[in-house]
Amino acid sequence: MKQLLAFAGALVVIGAVAAYGHRALDLPAQEVEVHHVVEVPEGASFKQVASLLAKDGLILSPFWFRLLGKVQDAERKVRPGEYDLHTGMRPAEILDILVKGRVIQYSVLVPEGLTALQISKVLGEAGIVESAGLARLASDAGFVKSLGVEAPTLEGYLFPDTYYFPRKAKAEDILKAMVSRFRQVYTPELQARAEALRMTERQVLILASIIEKETGQDDERPLVSAVFHNRLRVGLPLQSDPTVIYDIPNFDGNLTRAHLARRTPFNTYMNPGLPPGPIANPGGKSIRAALNPAPVKYLYFVSRNDGTHQFSATIEEHNRAVERYQLKGSRKASLRKAS
Q1: How many CB atoms lie within 10 A of CB 272?
Q2: Do the domains 106-185 and 24-100 match in fold?
Q3: C-beta separation of 217 from 307 below 8 A
Q4: Which of 5, 140, 265, 330 is the most buried (most CB within 10 A)?
Q5: How far apart are CA 55 and CA 67, in angstroms?
Q6: Coil, helix or strand for 12?
Q7: Would you tell me how many other CB atoms lie within 10 Å of the CB of residue 43?
Q8: Residues 6+ apart with CB under 8 A from 35
Q9: What DSSP character marks residue 21?
């Protein structure tokens, strides 16, 4: 009789354990979906992960969750990062998300015309990556070469777009994504056009970056491009203020005669031809404009002080435009000097 009672008791215990195991593994913690952002730290053990999930009420039992991880050989496969999980998920669903690394992706807009350093600051302020580390890697010759870029830095190759990155993303992953996006935009058709113009990829990006900084008006980009193509063809210096500004440390917004007289590689008032590298990261419209200048004879342009420019083919026309649109003694015009 005692043996029978013991056996019955054992069956009850086994049944209770099985029932609890079924409840802990096959059913969600709650019927109501309550979302929690769970951050799995780098190097966290599976035991620590189970504790984090239990703390937020996402699983009923850390023990059973750890058992599930052991059965599925997933104990060392959970990826670090931020996860959006809710209490209506079954433990197996949660484990699958953690193993596949389906972390929260944050939307970040990288505007046209930013330098690599400015892009690093944008991503740093968004909490995506450590700014200094990203900027440093963008100037690492070995890493730059590993991406197939024949240049000292990635300046010009970091394509402006809306990206989705997790928090604490790896700098190399971010830079790879941005260069890859450039490769998608710089199509075989554009490459063929560059060859027809006898321009290298780098020359295209240099010119596109200057166009990007000179105007924000889409309809003006081909005109600005034409001015620079024409000046290069006839041997006139580009005389572009943004190229000078690019090489001024901690520029305060006031471009002076002293700045224009500085002999630096990026001073296109002092040096003929294109500067040695891009001065920003251009968007697709500026890249296309660099390769498709308008069929005009313009050699000059001056700001109208409303975001647009007046274009001129001769120095006489240009001087009249300067007199009309620029206040006496001010210096807001691009290409206002005669060459």
Answers
A1: 12
A2: yes
A3: yes
A4: 140
A5: 18
A6: helix
A7: 7
A8: 84, 85, 86
A9: H
Supply the CATH classification number for the domain 106-185: 3.30.1490
pTM of the model: 0.84
Question: Between the CA of residue 128 and those of 20, 116, 125, 146, 257, what are the distances in Å?
Answer: 41, 15, 8, 23, 40
Q: Can you tell me the distance from the alpha carbon of 128 to that of 296, in angstroms, rounded to the nearest whole number? A: 44
Q: What amino acid occupies position 338?
A: A
Which one-letter amino acid corresponds to residue 53?
L
| Side chain identity, residue 259 | H
Q: Which among 27, 53, 57, 31 has a CA at the least distance from the CA of 40?
A: 53
What number is the average pLDDT over the span 16-34? 59
Q: How buried is 56 (Cβ within 10 angstroms: 0-12 exposed, 13-18 middle, 19+ buried)?
A: middle
Instruction: Give me the percent of the chain exceeding a pLDDT of 70.
Output: 88
Cβ proximity of 30 and 56 under 8 Å: no
pLDDT, tens digit, 9 for 90 and up, residues 114-172: 999 999 999 999 999 999 999 999 999 999 999 999 999 999 999 999 999 999 999 99
The one-letter amino acid code at 47 reads K
Token representation of residue 337: 């000097």
How far is Cα 339 from Cα 329, in angstroms, rounded to an integer?
20
